[in-house]
Write a structure and sequence with these properties.
The complex is a heterodimer of chains A (268) and B (267). In chain A, 28% of the residues lie in helices and 25% in strands. By secondary structure, chain A is an alpha+beta fold. In chain A, the strands form two sheets. Chain A has a seven-stranded antiparallel beta sheet with strand order 1-10-7-12-5-4-2, with helices on one face. In chain A, strands 3-6-11-8-9 form a five-stranded antiparallel beta sheet. The two termini of chain A are 31 Å apart. In chain B, strands 1, 2, 3, 4, 5, 6, 7, 8, 9, 10 and 11 form an eleven-stranded antiparallel beta sheet that branches. The longest helix of chain B has 15 residues. In chain B, β2 and β3 form a beta hairpin. The chains are: A alpha+beta (268), B alpha+beta (267). The interface between A and B is large, with 35 and 41 residues.
Amino acid sequence: MSARCLGAICLNAALLAPELQALSARRKFPCADAVGEWGFCDLWTGPAWTRGTPPLEIDAARRELPALVECVESVFDLSQLAIARVFSAARYGFIRPHRDWMGSEVPFTRLHVPLQTNPRALNSEDAIIYHMSVGEVWHLDGSRVHGGGCFADEVRLHLVLDFAPQFSPKNLLRDGAAYAPAPPAPLARPALTTAQHDAVRGLSPLVGSATLSPLTDLLGTIHYDRETDCGVAYDWLCAIAGDAGDSQAIESARATRDKYLGPTSPPS
Amino acid sequence: MMAHPIGRLAFDDGVLAKELETLELQATVPCTGYAHGHWGKCILAMRAAGEGAPRVNTSGENAPHLMERVAATFRMEHVKVVQLFAASNGGFVRPHVDWKPDAPLYTRLHVPLRTNPYALSSEEDVVFQMGYGEIWFLDASRPHSGGCFAGETRLHLIVDLDATVSLERAFVEESEYVVSPCRNVVALPELTSADRNAIDGLAELVTDTNLSAILDFLGAIHFQRRVDCAKTYDWLLQIAGSSGNSHLVSRAREYRRIYLAPFGSES
C-alpha cells in the first residue's frame, strides 16, 4: 500500500479562515526529525488514545475551532480516533525522509487533510513527489520512506488524524460513496545527472562532526528536485562518510540511516 | 579576537544542575529561522522600559539559585535581559551579527552552565570553547556563531547589559572583573583546494528547495576549518550565482543582509 487520496471533502473557506489564523498563531512543537519551520500541535484525542499523556477534550477544540471540528465530525467516523493534530510547515521547513515504523506492528492509521497549502508544499514517498490539495483526504503508509515540507514562505497546515491501526481506511469516511482511493499524481523531475551525483559524492572532504547534521538535511532535499528515491539520502550520507575515511563520521552516518530507515544488516 | 573571559560565576553545582534540568525540559523554546537543528532559548528575566531591574518570569522563578547568583554578581539595574541559550545534537546558530559596532543594543555576556568539548563558539575565523562558570564578553557586532556538536545539551546563561555601562561597573564587586585571554582556541586545519572544490560543486545541486539547507551546511564548515564564519554568505552567493537563477541570487543576498547587515551596515 502506498499513499492514496481517499476522496475530497468540502471545506468552507470563509468559516475556516479565522480558525486557520488561530492555528497558524498557535505554538507549534518541534519534531526531532524536522528541519527549520516544521512543527505540530495537538487538537484533541479520541477513544483510541492509548499513550501516556492525558486525553485532550474535544470540547476545548470545539470552542476554538468550531467549523473545523464540526466538519471533521460530519465527515469521519471518529469512534477509533486516537488523536487529531495539525502539522505545520513554512519557509523551507521539512521533515527528513523517514519511516514511521517497520514490520507488521502498525501503530496507527494516518490521514492527512490539507487545510491551507500552496504549490510548493510537497510530499514524497519512495521515488515520487506529489502535492496534496486543500480538502483532499490522504491515507499515508508510514512503513514506506516518506517526507514532506513547504518550500515557500507561506504556511502549510495539514490536519492529521491518527486512528487505531486496525481501522481500515475504507471505514474512515461516514459517506462510503465518497471513498474513491486514487494514487498520487507524481510531479515530474529531471533525472540526477552524473555531474550532480559527483557533486554529492564530492562533499566528502567537508564531512565532520559539525557538518554531518546539515549535510543530512541537504541530502534529504535533493529528491524534491531530482528523480531519485527519498531514502537514497542516507546511502549518500554513508558513502560520503566512507569516502572521507572518518570512522566517527561513518558510525554517525550509519546511525542516522538506521534511525530514519530502520536497522539494516551489519555493514560488510 | 574580541571575545574574552572577564570573571567567574560560582554556583552550588548540584543545585544548579537540578534547576537546569527543569528549565531544559519545560522552558526552552526552539528557534527557527536563524538556527540549525536543536538550538533554543528561554528568557528568565527582562527589564521593561522605565523599570529599575529586570522582572523575573516563571522560568526564572524555577531557577532561584541561578537568579540569586546573577543578582549577587551583577548590578541588576544595568541588566536588561537574562536568558538561556541551549544547543545539542549538532544544533548551531547561523553565523551572524547582532548589531552595528557603533550602535550596540546590549553588552552581551555568556556564562556556560553546562558544557562539553563539542560545544564551540566562533568569532570571525576563531573557534573557541568557553569553560563552565566563566563569564565571557562577546562582541556581537562581529560575525559569530555557536553550537553543540554532541548529544549532550550545552546551556549558556546570557546576561545582556546596558550597552552604555562599562563592564567593571556592571559587577557588584568591581574586583571580580578580571580580564583574561582566551586560552581555549581550537586548532583547525586550513581550507584545502579539495574543500573548496566540494563547496563549488554545490552549484550543481542548488535549487530554491535546498538553498537554506546549503546555507546551514556552509555555516557549519568554519567549525572544522580555519575560515571566517562570514565567508558562509560569500560562498552561498557564489553558488547561487553559478546557477544562473536570479531568484536564488536574490535569496542568497537577502540571507547575507539578514545575518551580516541586519541594520544596514553592509555596503
